[in-house]
C-alpha cells in the first residue's frame, strides 16, 4: 500500500475546531504527509502498472482540491493528476474505489458509469446532500441508491463506491460501508 496526494495548494484552510476559515495557506501533499506520518508521494509519480487498485478517500477536501465540485458542482474540473490516475487505472481494467463525495470524480471522468453517494432524497434528514445524486445523473451517469453500510459495484467499469459521510450516521455504520467498498475493490483486483 502506498499513499499519494497532489502537490498543490489547498483551495482554503478551515479551522475545524471553530468551523471557520483560517487565514493561512497549506499544501495538500504536506498536509497529507502529516496525516500519513510522512509515508507519502506526489500523485504525479503514481504509475498504475505498479498497483492492483486505487482507492480515493472522500471528504470535503476532495470537492475543493481534487476537483472544483464545491464551487462548480457538475460543471467542475478535475485535477489533472487525479484525472490521469483515474484514466490509467480504468484503461488498465484495474478497480477504482471511491467513497463519500469522491464518486463525483468518476461521474465527471467516466460518463455512463454507475456510482452511489447514498440516497437521492434526504431520508429522515440523514442525506443532506441528496441533490448530488441528481447532479450525477445530469452528468450522464447512473446513481444507485444505497444505505450507508453498503457499497455499489459498477462491474463494467470496475468502480466501487460508498456514501460514507454523505450520510449523517453513526461512525460504525460509515465504517461498515467503507469496509464493504474496500472488500469489493480487493475482490476485483
UniProtKB/TrEMBL annotation:
The protein here is known as GAL3A protein
Query: Which InterPro entries does its entry note?
Result: Class_I_gatase-like (IPR029062)
The UniProt gene name for this protein comes to: Gatd3a_0
Q: What is the lineage of its organism?
A: Eukaryota, Metazoa, Chordata, Craniata, Vertebrata
Amino acid at each position: 500500500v502506498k499513499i499519494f496526494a497532489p502537490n498543490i495548494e489547498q483551495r482554503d484552510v478551515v479551522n475545524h475546531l471553530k468551523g471557520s476559515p483560517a487565514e493561512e495557506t497549506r499544501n495538500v501533499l504536506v498536509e497529507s504527509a502529516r496525516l500519513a506520518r510522512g509515508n507519502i508521494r506526489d500523485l504525479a509519480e503514481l504509475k498504475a502498472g505498479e498497483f492492483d487498485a486505487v482507492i480515493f478517500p472522500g471528504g470535503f477536501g476532495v470537492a475543493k482540491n481534487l476537483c472544483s465540485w464545491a464551487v462548480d458542482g457538475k460543471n467542475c474540473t478535475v485535477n489533472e493528476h487525479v484525472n490521469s490516475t483515474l484514466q490509467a487505472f480504468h484503461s488498465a481494467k484495474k478497480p477504482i474505489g471511491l467513497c463519500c463525495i469522491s464518486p463525483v470524480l468518476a461521474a465527471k471522468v467516466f460518463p455512463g458509469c454507475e456510482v452511489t453517494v447514498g440516497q437521492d432524497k434526504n431520508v429522515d434528514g440523514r442525506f443532506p446532500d441528496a441533490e448530488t445524486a441528481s447532479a450525477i445523473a445530469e452528468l450522464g451517469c447512473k446513481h444507485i441508491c444505497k444505505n450507508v453500510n453498503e457499497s455499489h459495484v459498477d462491474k463494467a467499469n470496475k468502480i466501487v463506491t460508498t456514501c460514507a459521510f454523505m450520510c449523517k450516521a453513526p461512525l460504525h455504520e460509515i465504517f461498515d460501508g467503507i469496509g464493504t467498498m474496500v472488500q469489493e475493490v480487493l475482490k476485483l483486483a
